[in-house]
Design goal:
By secondary structure, the chain is an alpha+beta fold. Among the domains are: 270 residues, Beta-Lactamase (2-Layer Sandwich); 151 residues, Histidine kinase-like ATPase, C-terminal domain (Heat Shock Protein 90, 2-Layer Sandwich). Helix content is 53%, strand content 21%. The chain contains 16 helices and 21 strands. The protein has a 5-stranded antiparallel β-sheet with strand order 2-1-7-6-3. Strands 9-8-14-13-12 form a 5-stranded antiparallel β-sheet, sandwiched between helices. Strands 16-18-19-21-20 form a 5-stranded mixed β-sheet. Helix 6 runs antiparallel to helix 7, helix 10 crosses helix 11 and helix 11 crosses helix 13. The longest helix has 93 residues. The radius of gyration is 43 Å and the shape is flat.
């Protein structure tokens, strides 16, 4: 008993078991489920926002189709008037009053602001809605009509041009610019230009004589037009309560026709779009589909550029709806889910705690029994009734084990001394083995470090080879350009040659030390023909030295996804190998064209030479690391590293060679998606 009492006391595991059981019971509810709920809500929020963007994109499509329909209808109606028999009859009668009346009737019927007939010199022979006598004819729309082809487009009229047509149109186009949050900082105070639907159609009066019928409709402050678009896109009950649909037509970045309100009852005419939208839509020509600050609030917005007859971006078409109601609905949904989750959690935790208590209470009883035995009471027992669960069975087994422990306590005393002797012997053996293990571990660590250093130095050494070749080539170019004056720095050039040669020898030794490790670089979309062009200066000295002619054949329209430097490294390796195969000159062929492989779109780059070629035995081993036929110059890593870089991008590199004829290397890379 004395020996047992001197043993360390058993630490009560009750607290630890209780914590673990509670953790097992509550972890799914308080940790895993909230994480899953959070991930689900985030994904749902992203899908919700994506649906809003899809909706506003569809709204923009409707508005665009309506605007295109108005533009096309205007052009078609003016063309129908120009080709009508009635107009020909009026022109034959040559009665100015009758022609003017017909034009005025047509102008009012089509809802145009002006309608007139011009000759190739710009003289107005008849008009309606204007008294202008001469106009310019170098508009693309008017020029095409005078050439015999009907045309229509959006065009920007200066205020002077509008004033010549009608003083009322010039006045209607004038808008005072209003500063709003996030709008562009412009020193301009007024917008006086006008954006108009501009259409023209040829009138063949007689052989050799052609006129043009020109009509237009000013869109500045044309509120009926923009309200029609808004009503068409955002019908009643198409948006939730509290949201509001809006539509706007821009001249450049200024709202010239809109139903966006600056404040109650006043439209936001003369306000400017935000800088971010202006840059994306007018600056880059992209369609904007995102949230945007519109005048004084955030809207789910869609903007697209409007192009005039010159092909320039003249303005923008916008549709959008108020974001706040959707954001509020999303947050309310998230809050409702969180509240429901918390309520369910609060109701379920007491049930989990009750179940956990039925487990750790018997464990506490067994722990108390073990503590009494540890204090010397070998007759202590749990006394728990036998049950059908695992804990009840453990309690019965514990009592049985304690009984056996009491019986064998005497036997343990006898074995104690013998065990101590054996433990001492084994301890000495383990200490000796431990010392040996430590020594072996140190050797393994050193070997691992040496292997790692070897891999790193090999990679660095291989990458140094190309800069050394560039230095040597440019040094020869410098000597050639300096000419006879190079003798003034003869010693310095010699020292540079010696040091470059020294670096080359060091690199060769490093490459022989270990194979290079794979280095992953960032990838970008590139035009392979441009990269091939940029690579030529790096190898030009090698080609010039051997008198090699270069023939290019570029016919590629696709891009490849690969690190620019790695692709250049592949091309440099192939071109340098080709140059070495033509020591006495020849033709280097470089090609780049689209190609399919296994039903995948891609690009093929070819590097061919008219050199000595290779037999099938050498050709079968050229991609093996450290295999080379250039014993004094090569390392045997160029083609193996090139193959590694191409395969890593999902491509394929292959070679075909005929001894005495030449070699062609083919690199296929998938198209960048």
């Amino acid at each position: 008993m004395a020996d047992l009492q001197h043993q360390p006391k058993v630490v009560s595991p009750v607290r630890s078991v209780r914590v673990k059981l509670l953790a097992i019971a509550l972890l799914p509810t308080l940790v895993i489920l909230p994480l899953l709920l959070g991930v689900t809500m985030v994904r749902w929020g992203a899908k919700f926002d994506s649906l809003l963007i899809s909706k506003v994109h569809g709204d923009l499509t409707i508005a665009h189709q309506y605007l295109s329909t108005i533009l096309e209808n205007t052009g078609e109606r003016i063309e129908s008037i120009a080709t009508s028999a009635r107009l020909q009859d009026v022109l034959q009668d040559d009665t100015a009053t009758q022609l003017g009346g017909y034009l005025e009737e047509s102008r009012e019927k089509l809802g145009l602001d002006f309608l007139f007939i011009i000759d190739p010199e710009g003289r107005v022979t008849a008009s309606a809605g204007t008294e202008v006598s001469r106009v310019r004819v170098n508009w693309p729309v008017r020029a095409k009509a005078l050439q015999g082809k009907a045309a229509y487009a959006f065009d920007i009229f200066s205020n002077d041009e509008l004033g010549e047509i009608s003083a009322a149109l010039a006045q209607r186009a004038r808008l005072e610019l209003v500063k709003t949050p996030n709008s562009g900082q412009s020193e301009q105070l007024w917008e006086t230009r006008g954006l108009a639907i501009h259409a023209a159609s040829p009138i063949d009066v007689s052989p050799g004589r052609r006129l043009a019928l020109v009509g237009g409709k000013l869109l500045n402050q044309n509120l009926d037009f923009i309200d029609t678009i808004n009503d068409l896109v955002y019908k009643e009950a198409s948006l939730p309560e509290g949201s509001q649909g809006t539509a706007t037509l821009f001249l450049d970045d200024v709202r010239i026709s809109t139903n966006v309100r600056l404040f109650e009852g006043k439209r936001a005419l003369g306000t400017q779009v935000s800088n971010a939208v202006r840059t994306a839509v007018l600056g880059e020509g992209r369609v904007w589909l995102d949230s945007a600050f519109v005048v004084n609030d955030w809207y789910v917005s869609a903007y697209e550029p409007l192009v005039d007859s010159y092909g320039s971006r003249a303005g923008m078409l916008y549709v959008g709806f108020l974001e706040a109601p959707f954001a509020r609905a999303k947050y309310e949904t998230v809050a409702a889910v969180i509240i429901a989750f918390l309520a369910i959690t609060l109701m379920s935790i007491p049930v989990f705690l009750r179940w956990a208590r039925s487990i750790f209470k018997p464990l506490e009883r067994m722990t108390e029994t073990i503590a009494r035995v540890d204090e010397g009471d070998l007759g202590a027992r749990t006394g728990l009734p036998a049950t059908h669960d695992e804990i009840g069975q453990v309690a019965v087994h514990l009592d049985d084990l304690l009984q056996r422990l009491q019986e064998r306590e005497g036997e343990l005393r006898a074995w104690n001394e013998e065990l101590n002797v054996r433990v001492d012997e084994r301890t000495r053996e383990l200490q000796l083995a431990n010392h040996q293990l430590e020594a072996t571990t140190k050797q393994l660590v050193i070997s691992e470090k040496l292997a790692t250093v070897g891999e790193i130095t090999a990679g660095v050494a291989h990458e140094i080879n190309n800069p050394i070749a560039v230095i040597q080539g440019n040094l020869e170019v410098a000597r050639y350009l300096i000419g006879e004056k190079a003798d003034l720095a003869k010693i310095e050039f010699r020292l540079i040659d010696e040091q470059v040669e020294r670096i080359s020898r060091i690199v060769t030794k490093l490459l022989q030390f270990a194979r290079p490790e794979e280095f992953a670089g960032y990838v970008e979309r590139h035009d392979p023909a441009h990269i091939m062009t940029d690579t030529m200066p790096l190898v030009q000295h090698v080609l010039n030295r051997s008198g090699i002619n270069v023939v290019r054949d570029d016919n590629v329209s696709r891009l490849v996804l690969m690190n620019r430097t790695e692709l250049q490294q592949v091309l440099v390796n192939l071109i340098v190998n080709a140059a070495h195969a033509m020591p006495h000159g020849g033709t280097l062929g470089l090609g780049c064209h689209d190609a399919e492989r296994d039903e995948r779109a891609g690009v093929v780059l070819t590097v061919s030479d008219t050199g000595i070629g290779m037999d099938q035995e050498v050709l079968a081993r050229i991609f093996e690391p450290f295999f080379t036929t250039k014993r004094q110059e090569g390392t045997g890593l160029g083609l193996s590293v090139s193959q590694m870089l191409v395969i890593r991008q999902g491509g394929i590199i292959s070679a075909d060679s005929t001894p005495g004829t030449g070699t062609i290397f083919t690199v296929w890379l998938p198209e960048a998606q």
